[in-house]
Structure formats: C-alpha cells, structure tokens
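> @MW can you paste both from yesterday?
MW: sure, first one:
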Amino acid sequence: MPQQLTLRVRPRLALVAVLLLLAFVGATARTATAATPLTVSQAIATQNNSVQTVRGYIVGEPVATTTVNRSGFTDDLAIALADSAGETSTSKMVYVQLTSSWRSTWGLRTHPANMGKQVDVTGTLTAYFAHPGLKSPTAIAAVGATPPPTTTTTSPTSTTTSPTTSPTTSPSPTGTTGPYDSTYYANAIGKSGSALRTSLHSIIRSQTVLTYDQVWAALKDTDQDPNNANNVIEIYSGRSIAKSDNGGGVDQWNREHVWAKSHGDFGTANGPGTDVHHLRPEDVTVNSTRGNLDFDNGGAAVSQCSDCFSDSDSFEPRDAVKGDVARMIFYMAIRYEGDDGWPNLEPNNSVANGTAPYIGKLSVLKAWSAGDPPDAFEKRRNQVIYDTWQHNRNPFVDHPEWVGSIWP
C-alpha cells in the first residue's frame, strides 16, 4: 500500500517541478528580452516618443541635421551614436541630447577621449536637430570594449551627407529654402558672410516701432500658450500664466529683455528697448535673477526656473529655449548696426561686458542655436510679429544656417 501511494505522488511532484522550471525559464527569457537595448538602426526606426535604452558607439558631435564633428569639438551639448565605431553616414546615426547633468562626463569638448566608446543611453526617442534623436537622457553608461574605427574615405574631421562639406568652411547661406525666399529675403539669397549680413540688415530694419506700453499687448499675442488662449508661456521658466497677471509683483510676469537693455544702455525707449523680437514674458523673480547677465553654461540652480542656472557673470536658460535665446541675440546684432541712432549691438565671446553694446558668449550661443532648432512655437511667434506687430522677421528663425555664415 505505501508503495502504491508513492507511485501516485511522484508523477505529481515531477509535473510540479516541470511547471516551475518552465515558468522560471520563461521569466528569465522575458527579462533578458526586456533588458536588451535597441540598436541604433532600431532607434532610428522607432522615433515614437517612447522611453528606450539604445546601445551604440560615440562617433562625434552633431552640429547640424547632416553634419557631425569627429574632432575639433565645439561644445558638450550632444553626441552621435552609431552601430559601428567607424560609421560616417549621418543617416545611420542617432543624435543624443546631453542635458546639463551629463555634459561634464559625456560631452566631447570636455572629454574627446569618449570618441569610439560603446554606451547604453536611456531616453526619449524623438527628433533632435530635425534628425532621429534620443532626448532627455536618464542614464548613460559605458559598456564593453571599444574596437578600433574602421577605415573611411570621408573627411577625418567631419561627417556630412555631402563629400564636399567641411566643418572649417561656412555653411551654405541657402542651406534651406523658405516661403519668403523669393520675396522678403530675395536680396539676401545666394549671399554669405559680410554680404549676407549687410543685406539682412537692410531688409529687417524696415519695421513698425512699438511703444513700451504696446509691448504688453504684443506679448500676449506672440507668446500665447498654444494649449490655453488665456495664458502666455514664460520663456525661461516655461510656466503658463494668465495674460492678465502681468505687472511687477511677485509671481506675476513682466517684460524680459533677452538682450539686456544695459548692454548698450538703450533702456526702454522706442527702438531696441521695445523690439518684440527679443522681448519675452518672464516671471518677475526669475527676470530679476537673470538681470543683465551674459549667457553661458553652468552655475547654480535658479529658483522657480527648472533646468536654469546662473553664477556671478552668466545665465543658462532651460534646454528647450536655448536656441530661441541665441537667435534673438543674433537678430538684435543684425538689426541694430549703429546706423540709425542706436548702439551697434554685437555678440562676443566674453561674459564680462557690463554696459558695452556687447553680449556673450558667442561660441555658446552658436552651439545653442545648432542644438535647439526652431520649433513650432518660435516659428509662430516670428510669423505673428511679422503679420501683426512689427512687420519684420527674425531671419535666423527662417534660416538658422545663416548663423554659421555670418559668425563662422
């Protein structure tokens, strides 16, 4: 009798063991699958705003949609990944945004030896530089060994889709086309360098000049929250706030001069002091913190302004508007050339400009413009100013590549 009982129990135990083993194997397989990073080619094909981990080799610094520096790195704002350490085709790369917390470790200007390293990057799969990208990374870690780069026939200092392009030459002034090229910009198309600058100044200096009181109404139109017509978006903080809550009180919004009015001492008189192309809504406290500081990377976190930083001589806005800030500065430099009674405004590479008609830091502003191309909000703003308020345009919103042609 005991022997019969044993025979009946053992098959059941064996069945349970098998089921447990299958469950363990299945869970292990699922875990391994879930933990497997995407390849770069998979990431390029999966630009759907999902958060994923991508594995690839660092192959350069993206500076434009089809240009990646492989040496002579200009900043720490982005890196390009590819499935091969020797890849030179930008169409086979994913561009990774480096937010402030990752720049000191993974930026190529600071750490050029990172070239060729294989890394896992976790972030949001979405366009960056109008190119397949990985933004807002939450993790970056080196993995595996680094193989030597493969032989390539392209330029050793840059990667572009055009074999005749070099990072040491100015970008073509007609790198993109736009609806105003044959009308508003007709006299500028085909020009570069100083000739382009002179032509653009002649074009955009024709404008309707607003009063400082009119700026209130203009900003309520130009900076309207696309998701709430009763609000405006503050440029640095990104906060949506009621249009009616403007003034000088705590937590209200006021008129921020992106080109600080003391840099040229033009105040709020009609002219550069009321030019809506560089005036934006901003929280009173954050506006005070920025003051008349030049622009640069780094510093301590700014209260009430997530992802903003400042120190004794500079201010760094949030990543989403770095390009906006840069293009406003470049507009002011071209619009105000000192030939109409106003100071000759110009960006330079200093962060100690005081009351001189200069603002910096030029190298950083150029990198910001390249790293944060014009988005829908900035383009709409440019159009509203042109259609309704000043009837002139910011050429660097329409043609961001002109920045490199004028300030190579």
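MW: second:
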Amino acid sequence: MRKALLLFVAALTVAATLQAQTRRGKVEITGDVQVSELVKKHIEFNERMRTVPGYRVQIAALSGANSREQAFDLKRRFKEDYPEVEVYIIFTEPNFRIKVGDFTSKLDAFVFMRSIKDRYPGTIVKENVFPIHLDMSNIVPETDADAEM
C-alpha cells in the first residue's frame, strides 16, 4: 500500500511538472506608479551626473606650517618619478591630501600602491568618483537634431 501511494505521488509530481512546462502565458507586473516615477528620476539623475566610481592612491596627508608648499613639492617629485600618472591635491581644511591615479578597479589601485610603497610610505587606497570626459570629436551625428547638440 505504501509503495502504491509513493508511486502515485511520484506520478502526480511528474505530471504536474510536465504540465507546467508546456503552459505558455503572459506575465503582467502590476506595481505602484510612484515606483516607476522614482525609477525614471533615478535614470535622469544618473544621466546628468556623468560620473563613474573609481579609486585613487593617497600618498600623503599634510597639515600645519608650510603644508601647502610641501604638498606642491611632493606633487612635483611624484610627477618626475611617474610622469604618466595624474596627481591631485585636495584641500580640506586644514589638510592637504595628495592623491594619484585614476583607477577603475580596486585591484589596479592596490597593485600600483604596492609598486610605490617603498618610495612613498603610508600610502592608502581611497574610493573616488571621477567625472566622465567624453571625447566628442569622433562622434558623427545621426540626424540634424543631433548635430545641433
């Protein structure tokens, strides 16, 4: 009796699975109108921001007397060592922070940090947001309206 019951349940399960696989239907998602409005606003905001998340390596944070001169001197020395890497001086009272590089992955930033750690001790990787610089010189407009932009 028990085997017959298990066999019957197994047959029902197989039949239900086959029936579910052969059905085709239309899925309709019903949601709050405010949610779709928020999604639209989020998309518009992201289109206006034109930024991308990334990382920079902070090589120093200076404060006190002559910190401005020290920061610009460190920037000059770093550019001599690594002319291909961008250097940024960020002033947030009372500190001058010297950050280098524009890395899109944390791994790339850490690899670079390790390569300069002996020369610039105390370096750390910091999250950053970069503006997107679009090169519009090689874009061909599709319509006359696009050309006017």
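> thanks! The beta strands are 51-62, 87-92, 95-103, 124-131.
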